[in-house]
Amino acid sequence: MQKLIIGLVGEMASGKDEAKKYLNEKYGAKSCKFSTPIRDVLNRLNIEVSRDNMVSLSISLREKFGQDLFAKVIASDARALDSDIVVVDGVRRLEDIDHLSVLPHFKLVRIEADSKLRYERMKLRNENIGDAEKTYGEFMEDHESETEATIPEVMEKAEYCLNNDGNLNEFHKQIDVLILKIK
Questions:
Q1: Are strands 160-163 and 106-112 parallel, antiparallel or unpaired?
Q2: What band does 145 get if pLDDT is binned at 50, 70 and 90?
Q3: pLDDT tens figures, 98-109
Q4: How far is Cα of residue 8 from the mean position of the Cα atoms in its chain?
Q5: Which CATH superfamily hosts domain 4-182?
Q6: In 3D, which of 180, 170, 163, 178 has the Cα closest to residue 15?
Q7: DSSP-based three-state secondary structure for 105
Q8: Predicted TM-score of the model (pTM)
Q9: Separation CA 62–CA 158 (nearest Å)
Q10: Cα 53 vs. chain centroid, distance in angstroms?
Q11: Is 5 helix (H, G, I), strand (E, B) or coil?
Q12: Which residues lie closer than 8 Å to 6 by C-beta, 6 or more apart?
């Protein structure tokens, strides 16, 4: 079997990480995430890993080294991972698709979920400093940031769609059906 590369695109807290975890656990997938290099740099520099700092660093690095900087890194990482299924978490720019779509068997999957559900999930997981204290208005304002604004446009390019408005079991069943379709 040729390596299947699944790119996940969706707004904040839509379920990309859950889809990735499920694919890793059930199908033995390996994964890479667009935010990992940014988090690595912030951690290495002992700078707080907040959404604002991640956005600022991402913008600075892409302005200096090209808008497709992270797309090149992640495409290379995905190609190098030794697994039949590779999950790329956090596709968010058209440049990302440009680099990933040249990889054999790349499939872009959109994950959708209601904004109120996504807000509650974001607060619960508290992935970035300050997430648990955010208001719904602040959460929605985050969607206007430079790193989030292009996601809806990229979502339109997806070949497949998963809806994560239900429970975990329903979401996992959709992923199973998707894998059967793609294979």
A1: parallel
A2: confident
A3: 999 999 899 999
A4: 5
A5: P-loop containing nucleotide triphosphate hydrolases (3.40.50.300)
A6: 163
A7: coil
A8: 0.90
A9: 24
A10: 18
A11: strand
A12: 23, 29, 85, 86, 87, 88, 106, 107, 109, 182
